[in-house]
Write a structure and sequence with these properties.
The chain is an alpha+beta fold. The chain has helices at residues 20-23, 31-40, and strands spanning 4-13, 54-64. The longest helix is centred in the middle third of the chain and has 10 residues, at 31-40.
């Protein structure tokens, strides 16, 4: 019997000011935090966001019988 997948999607928004501590404009991120981001994630493009912007998407798949 083949299984079907039901997918659930939920947006990830920068809904809180706390989100912008790492994902906001680089000039507004604490210099130590920004340096750590650049060290751990050298190809990261997850900065420069404003409040309530779409940051990503959660996707959860449920296998249905």
């Amino acid at each position: 019997m083949a299984l079907e997948t039901l997918n659930y999607y939920k947006p990830i928004l920068t809904a809180l000011s706390a989100c912008l501590q790492c994902h906001g404009p680089e000039e507004e991120i604490n210099p130590e935090t920004l340096q750590k981001i650049k060290t751990l994630y050298p190809n990261d493009k997850a900065t420069g966001y404003s409040i309530n912007e779409l940051r990503g998407l959660w996707k959860i798949g449920f296998e249905m019988q």
